Amino acid sequence: MSRRRSIPWIHKWSRILIAAIASCGALTTAYLTVVKLTQGSAACPTNSCDVVLSSPYATVLGLPLALFGFLAYASMATFALAPLAVDPAKNKPTRTKLENWTWLLLLAGAIAMSIFSGYLMYLLFFTIKALCLYCLGSALFSLSLLVLTIIGRTWDDIGQIFFTAIIVGMVTLIGTLGIYANVNNPSANTGSGGVSLTPTGDPKVGVGWPITTTSGEAEIELARHLTKIGAKEYIAWWCPHCHEQKQLFGKEAYPEIQKIECDPQGKDSRPDLCKAAGIQGYPTWEINGKQYPNVQSLEKLAQVSGYQGPRNFKNFPGAFK
């Protein structure tokens, strides 16, 4: 009399566990995507999360990196749960076929996500030099998905795991290096004038990146007008979008602006004023009692502030493309 071989508990629950972890990752990256798109501030014990989220590495192909993370996690959850929707008692061949294919997709996805997360951890500790809890959590999610994918079923061919890891790993690593090849290459983000709105390199702690554009008469007059009517700009020294706003004014005009540094580590910071004003993201302009979040064109600032001076602005986003 033969005894039926019992199924390990991890094999019974692996897909549920994978789907649960992937769902946590999807929720986290969805939140970060919203924060990035709205240029808000992430809920984090320190400003490190915002430093990472505002770094040039947080944008891929013009879109938030977190958005691609969300798509990856959502796909993993879908692959994990798809076979469970098929009743094996009614359609066992389809269920078996779907399980085999989705395990391969889960393996490839988990390998790619783990390698990409590993590269991001390298950037986090050695390039950006900031401790982002969301990034660490995502890396842990990716590694957990890989482990569960490997031990969550009986693989008849172990060589299949190594072959998939080599192929997917090489493609992921080459693609990642290609995507980030020009992040710190100034010539990749400059126009014919050799200046860029996008900062390169690491910001000076407490101050930010140096302004490299020059100001015309219109920029200087607008800056003085804004200060005269009591307009304020709420900023954070590490915020690339704040640097973009500085570049639009230029190094001669921007010192005329009345700005309030919101980060406690920033020069002459006043976080109490930022909190009292309910500032959610940087930069945020306060003009005539109304707030205008995000980078504003000089033409828009002139319009909402009632500026009547010259408007032949030399610095505008289109001039740097």
Question: Could you provide a short overview of the structure?
Answer:
This protein is mainly alpha-helical and 321 residues long.
List the helices and strands and how they pair.
Blueprint: H1 9-38, H2 48-53, E1 59-60, E2 63-64, H3 65-81, H4 92-128, H5 133-151, H6 158-179, H7 217-228, E3 232-235, H8 240-249, E4 259-261, H9 271-277, E5 284-287, E6 290-293, H10 298-305
Parallel strand pairs: 3-4
Antiparallel strand pairs: 1-2, 3-5, 5-6
Helix pairs in contact: 1-3, 1-5, 3-4, 4-5, 4-6, 7-10
What does this structure look like?
This protein is mainly alpha-helical and 321 residues long. The protein has two domains: 9-179, de novo design (two linked rop proteins) (Up-down Bundle); 217-320, Glutaredoxin, CATH 3.40.30.10. It contains ten helices and six strands, in the order H-H-E-E-H-H-H-H-H-E-H-E-H-E-E-H. Strands 4-3-5-6 form a four-stranded mixed β-sheet, covered by helices on one side. Strand 3, helix 8 and strand 4 (259-261) form a beta-alpha-beta unit.
